[in-house]
């Protein structure tokens, strides 16, 4: 293959292949022919990253170029680029960020006395968005869009570990709707769903930012309150209980009392796993039910 043919091969590459120098200069560009994903970038050649990008983004690229030159290994980096990264465009640009996978490799020659790398930029936005959706639904309950049980187990295990290490109190509330079965039987499943969603909305409204709510099972929920002593957690549970009672009146028809029973506990030094904490919260919830429902029991 002669030089011309080689050049034609390089120009036909679907992903853009940049040569970037240690100071951030666009030394050369090949490929980028897949017009579904890339604009023509030939005007970049000869410019510097700092002529085109906001300083923080340009700093990021120059840092990665230098890391690749120091290590000599191929580096793989995921990064986003959006209007807010481009000089001269407003921070709130109309377009969503584009996600790239950059493969960066030091080259063994210099251009104008500067070391250079090869930077292959592949648009991975579709894969990234799909992964983001999968991560979201992997952790989220479909009906309420609260976190699911899987996420609870993971978070509670982390809270237990930080309790053991830093002695930070974390309280746990287990909630169960009272008499939901009667609502389903009399008013239909759809009405039952509406009540589950209403409780989830109340939890979202009442929680602080650091708190998290989870749908544990059918009509059972868990709330985790980091940095919260049991006394404060019980007051919070009582507030939830009365908020829900007021709200539920408008949701139910006839004489079914849809209320909520709550068991409140805190992670303790005796808990050998997060399951022990959950079992204790469940037992307290059961006590609240036995005492006539619509109650908070804490320990
Ligand atoms: N509509 C609806 N109902 C659900 C859902 N998940 C569970 N349930 C119902 O919730 C009820 C839960 O059972 P229980 O807790 O024993 O019923 P309950 O009437 O609330 O009884 P108490 O808790 O003792 O007051 C069952 O009837 C389930 O069918 C759901 O996603 N939607």
UniProtKB/TrEMBL annotation:
SMART domains: GGDEF (SM00267). Residues 168-299 form the GGDEF domain. It comes from the Bacteria. Residues 2-72 form the PAS domain. Its EC number is 2.7.7.65. It is an enzyme of class 2 (transferase). GO terms for cellular component: plasma membrane. It catalyses: 2 GTP = 3',3'-c-di-GMP + 2 diphosphate. Its cofactor is Mg(2+). InterPro entries: Diguanylate_Cyclase (IPR050469), GGDEF_dom (IPR000160), Nucleotide_cyclase (IPR029787), PAS (IPR000014), PAS-like_dom_sf (IPR035965), Rev_trsase/Diguanyl_cyclase (IPR043128). PROSITE patterns: GGDEF (PS50887), PAS (PS50112). This is diguanylate cyclase. It comes from Salinimonas iocasae. The lineage of its organism: Bacteria, Pseudomonadati, Pseudomonadota, Gammaproteobacteria, Alteromonadales.
